Amino acid sequence: MRQARYTLWLGSAAVLVLLLSWHEISRLPDGKFHAYIFDVGQGDSVLLVTPTGRQILVDGGPDFSALERLGEYMPFFDRSIDLLVLTHPHEDHLAAFPAILERYRIHGILTAEDCAPHTGRLRALFDLAARFTVPLHIVSVGTRIHLNDGTSLKVLWPPHEQRDALTANDRSVVLSARSGSGSILLTGDISQQSEKSLLASGTNMRADVLKVPHHGSTTSSCTGFLLAVSPQLAIVSSGEGNSFGHPNPATVARYEALHIPLLNTQDSGTIPVMFYGTPDR
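Structure (tokenized):
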């Protein structure tokens, strides 16, 4: 009987080791471009993983959920992130960043927010970044970052000269991330006002995947903007039963009218996207 129990214990341990090994192997670089739109409730957090395993985390969600999702979608022994991107300084986009700074080695923070005039959580975040000697990159339209594996990031918004006249939502960093196999447009919480300014600028916004602006609010996703992006898939990040009614039914109807498939984290949980092919977008 004792021998049987010992054999059973060894068998269970072997299965556990195999499962853990498979989880770690599945998180290693595979030559593909990945985006994980994290389920963080009513907020935003998106992890981009390049073909060689470079990691960019765009926004930190409304609580510690983004930190938990990193533990699920990054290799267990990987304790570094190449870049944090803060689209704008609202709580539902930055809450987990301090905890992430304390637990991971961060190589840089990208934001459109100047550190000088801010107080509260954003000031504390900048102070923490300084304590850990994390470089802070203040960006505006035209900033480009080229990684060594064919992945590029381009800031499409906001323009530096208009930044102070915009609301916090409309100062959101709009980031185009492109690899040889696909592209995603990350839009923060911009409204139709900024969408129309982007249209007027003639900026190329085409992308395979669109992270829906402002959680699908009624003030976002104008028809012209959706036509310009022309995504094959759009994804809303919103919380179940949220008090804002996101995504707004009228906004959802615009996507449906243009036959753009729409997924929502409150229905699907974390949404992983793997990009294939060589799009000419």
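The chain has two domains: 1-30, 31-275. DSSP finds nine helices and 16 strands in the chain.
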